[in-house]
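Below: protein 1.
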Amino acid sequence: METYRHSSLLHGCVMFVFLATISKACERPSSPQCFRRNEEETVYTCEWSLNTTEENVTFDLHINKTLFPNIRNTSHKIRAELLIRSRSVDIWVVAHIGNSSCMSPRRSVTLKHIVKYEAPRNILVSWGKNKNNLILRWPWPAAESYPAVAEVCLRRDGHPSESWETRLTNVTINESMYQINAMNLMKDSVYQVKIRQRSNKCIEPLWSDWSSVVIVPAELEEKPEITTKIRRINGIREVTLTWRKDCSLETESFPSAPRPEGTSVGLAAPHYSRYRRLLKPKHMPSAAAVKGVTYNLSDTQSSHGCPCMNKKTKNTEGNNYTMYVSYSAVNISVFAKNDAGESPKAIVQVPAEPAEDLKICDNTSLKKKITRGTCLELYEAENAALSPKNVITLTARNKGHQTQVKDYIRYLYFEHTCDHRKPRTVKRCFFYQKEGVPIREPQDFLAYGETDTSVDLSWKAISYTDQRGFQTHYNLCRVKITSRDDKECFNISTSKVKYHLDKLTPSSEYIISLAAVTRVGEGPQATLTINTKTEKSFNESKTRSSHLSPNLLFQSSTLAGKRLRCQRGKKL
């Protein structure tokens, strides 16, 4: 009897050791989850996990009485027609490790109600126009058919001790992409962000896996500060643009100041702003360049393909760029770009080369065939400033635009060629397609400083628009009213807007006219009437003025001028 008891005790010890060995060698797998990736999917995926370092582990998946044996991964795909989907089923998995087997907990589910979306991928981030608003977007096929809820976790980059802040929000759909907004962040900080999503359409949605952590750089708030250096090389302008790259953001901070209670770490809080005052950076803050910054450059000459078919946009990660432009005006835009958006554009305006010494075109290529690598530009010249408000660009592709060239309009004509991918200006001159006579008289035609034998005249030049042709000179004529036959005319240079008219008769009345003249003919006249002084009164006034103090002399001449202008106004 004692022997039997001893044997039973020994057998119990052996069983205990055996069970302890199994428990140590085989840990139970997690309960499997079986789901579709969307509501219309016809394939189910079952997933589970097992904490082991052993190799050659196999699994048997049980769904009610249906067995899917010898699975070598922790997931398995099953066609929907092989499963019971409309009523509750039990699912579990058995792991086989060597000679040991371990069964997961059972789970009862109705498979048709379960959907688990893929984790968000290719997440795009941008700072919104509203203050401290971060926009997160990611592509999703047929997003309109699958409404979702998202959970986003955020914390400041470089602060591993900070806990993740979790926010739950409905997903909006914008151009077949899911989108969520994270409000009340600090645009000058770098954030770590991760997202998971789930359907809000099915009955039993599962959360997707978390996305990869995305680093969100600070906003690019300031446009680049550009300095320009131009070198002229035989019809080509070499333009070197330089800007300042990233730097540390200058701040005044108060590290000893306590953070107000209830303020989330890394998030904007109105009550916390008094403890941290940001100063405007001299150039780009390093928080905006944490993942690198690319600079995008474009110019109006390349965009028109005139004359070189270069890339419309250029990118660089450096702090300078050299481009080549012709002698016509060009606008160059530069902006910085990081993963969270773009900075405002800096516009560099490079005006046309000065045109003071330009001549009239002896010939142009307007009626010739424009070949590839050649282009023509015509600036509508309203005045001497030659600002390119209306520009006609003619290339081999769009020569039909030649019909836009108007009669009686002065153009600044440019002819460019592409020389080893560099635009070179080979001709500049003034051009009219058809000329006419001026349509307006010289403006503000005035007489002053009358003496017994002379008068001074002044006027304003006629604009290019009113000239309607190349002005050759002004025609100035004087007629003595008492003797209509006493008419004399003078050619005045177009560069002058003043003239001293002399050899007049004392105590006489004259009609003086002024008209602009082009190669086609004379335009309207501006006229005025003057009266020369008597020789005696002129000499007396000279004598009196010599005895007057400078102040009285000035007041007297001013008053006389006013009276004379009033008299002219009454006569007109």
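Below: protein 2.
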Amino acid sequence: MLKLMDDKQAAYLLLRYCTSYGKMVYYMRAVPGRKVRQELRRFDDMVHDAMQAISSSRLSAQAWSQAKLAIRYGGLGLRSTAEHHAAATLASISAWEELAKKLDHRYRVEARAWRKAAKSFNEAVGSDDVSPEGPRGVLVQRLLSAAIEERQLRELRKDVDDNPREKARLLTITLPHAGSWLTAVPYTGKDMEPQEFEVAVKMWLGSAVFEAGQTCEVCKKDGLDRLGHHALSCRHGGDWTAKHHAVRDELYMACLDAALEPKKEEKGTVGTKPGIIPGDVSLPRGVNERRPRSIDVTIVNPQSASICQEAAISQGYAARKGEATKYTKYAEELQKNNRRFTAFALESMGGFGAEARSFLWRVAAEAADRARRNKAEVFRDYAERISIQVVKGAARAAIRRGTITDRNSIGVEPGNIREKPVEYVSLDVEIWQEECEALGKAVQQKAREDAERKTSRSGQGTGRTLPPIWPPPDPASPTPTPRSTGMDEEGSKATHGTKVHDAPADASAVRDAP
């Protein structure tokens, strides 16, 4: 059914939280691997096919390997049950061992199941962290799975070691809060259009965004790259400005929640330069600082040709460069005017710079105190809203610049695509409505027949005909005698205790004897 949903963002959240890894954890912990291994692989294939339908693309082997990682590691949080089954088995056995020995001193760990799980886990993480001899203390499944995913992330980075742009992408998507847009519940301010979400997922996974051999529809540049790097950097058409202003507005609303009296695009005097705008958002008293503060938003693309070499080596390089550029432009003159400054730097896939995280946390703390809410929840809400605006801006820019790949397009690595094609179910609304109407009529007919049978049985020997339950009785027909309420027509109490077998021949003379 997820394949039929128009709202791709909601379909992804339902897949991740309701119909993927979380549904199988109990079975992974309770059932040995030899009994469920094949079923777990089939389940993973079903999740893979559902995600392909949601993203309207055929995911390459590399893209799917990334999608299986946790969001904090740059994935989509769609963990493979087959790959993490060993971690679940080890954690389960080690957790119940102590209790089992208390209940039965003769209990011994099932050696065969433990050895197989330990061997599989050690191969997955590339070490001998778990002894095959048996548990030595309680193992935590969350930490075991994290070790597996860290190894998988290292392998992904090794595979693109000769591609600086891809290395930069894998670093920027693992920045703090870069994946906040993937956890946002789609309501006002956090929703994405279906095509926006599809394009954002493709950019996140490094899949092909555009069909081959296109020209940018905005700047008319030839050779539009399929992965969307040009769309993230192109300054033509106003998309970059729109994305910047959307982030600024979210930041302004956050400061408004905190009662910091923010002002947007306030013109002032910096040094000897009158009429300059020292920041996108200005706070007359800062954040409980008794000094005014200016906040300037900047969004930097780490995959641009000018900085991708450095961004491929140092995580967060693009955000730090954006902060340094803003300080060089404004900070010195602002300090001379006794005005503090914040460079709110973001990377183009939603990652936050260090200074942006610090400032947003202070604003969230103020807003949470006023609203008597949890500070972490308020911060997460603001981070999701800002991350959504950054990613939506990037997706909209790509949509305007060329023909987007569809579900039948081959990814960047056609040789690694699963051979089994994805089958998509089409729904004819008219046929569906006709079937629903026919089913409704059949149900009504069955209810009518049951009512008639009940009427014939109830009316035998009473000399009266009871009305059917369905359809309602015709207003022109005589109204049936109502059930007794214990009162007669004049409002006085009726006589009780009359037995049914004592009723006279004229049953209508007795008013519904109990």
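Confidence is low (pLDDT under 50) at residues 408-429, 459-473, 479-514.
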